[in-house]
Amino acid sequence: MITLAELAELVGGRVFGDGGTNIRTMNTPDRAVAGDLVFATDDRWLAAAEASQASAILTSVDAGAGKPKLVVVDVRQATQQLLGVFARTYHPEIGIHPLAFVSPTATLASDVAVGPFACILDSAVLGSGVVVHPFVYVGDGCTIGNDTVLFPGAKLMPHSVVGSRCNLHAGCVIGEAGFGYVPDGGQHRRIPQIGHVAIGDDVDVGANTTIDRAMVGATIVGDGTKIDNLVQIGHNVRIGSNCIIVAQVAIGGSAKIGDNVVLGGQTGVAEHLEIAAGVRTGGGTGVARSLRNPGDYWGFPARPMKDTLAAMAATNRAPKMAQEVAELRRRLEELEKRLG
């Protein structure tokens, strides 16, 4: 438990009502119970919050009578901070769990935490504050920067490089072999993939996302990039800094993605293409040619958002236009009969 007054100090807010109100967690008004804090961004939400079973309300609306309130300038920002306070995430204790395997040739900082059934192989290097959850696999020669967290079942294949303050979520696979084959007498022969993956600082990789190692050289993910669940990134792809890549995106091998790019869910990027810095794609976009200018794109194939919307509007008008054309043809035929 934490008091409303203590939460106000954390987020720089003001308390109206009983600052000693104990708060257990955050919740939505329809599910809140005693001990919960709910947020309200406008008068409509405030009414719902007041009618709920919550003990207090986080809001930017002028305080009034009713439940105790924590009033802040930006509810969204304060919510982000408070969710971190109430997050209930299991972290292994500092040290190596007796059920984990750590190679004697691996190098671990003194404050690394390794959970049960984790496996850390030869010559791996783990920096200060690294957390390795149960069932994580760290292959030989991997390097992991300070304060990075590997969640249960994450896998780093040999020689992968991960920066500091990254989060690699459950089931992601970093550095598995890229998908490369050459035809040979009616068969497909695998091309050996001898490169690696290099991930920058402050990168998040979602659950069950896969990032393939390069054929030669490196598949690169830049600093600050956030990758959702169920994303596929092919071999030798280069992704810039501070990108957002939403679920079910697939990026073909050797594609180059600039800084501050946003790829909406289910966007597909063909191999060897270039996407300029500042490009944003809508969900389901198919990128079949390079996008060399920043801006919003949508559709298949990808084209500027306004062009796609104009084409959709024209398509929606097509049935009515067909009826009008049919009517004009009928009238023309009648006119021709009269003149004939």
In short:
This protein is α/β, with parallel strands linked by helices and 340 residues long. Helix content is 19%, strand content 30%.
Question: How would you describe the overall organization of this protein?
Answer:
A hairpin with a 2-residue loop joins strand 22 and strand 23. The model has no long low-confidence stretch (mean pLDDT 94). The chain is an alpha/beta fold. Helix content is 19%, strand content 30%. It has 4 helices and 40 strands. The termini are far apart. It is flat and about 100 Å long. The strands form 6 sheets. It has a 12-stranded mixed beta sheet with strand order 8-11-14-17-20-25-28-31-34-37-39-40. The longest helix has 35 residues, at 305-339.
Q: Mind telling me the C-alpha Rg?
A: 27 Å
Q: Tally of extended strands? A: 40
Taking the alpha carbons of the first and last residues, their distance comes to 93 Å
Strand fraction equals 25-35%
Main sheet summary: 12 strands, mixed
Task: Note poorly predicted spans.
Answer: none
Shape: flat
- The strands making up the biggest β-sheet line up spatially as 8-11-14-17-20-25-28-31-34-37-39-40
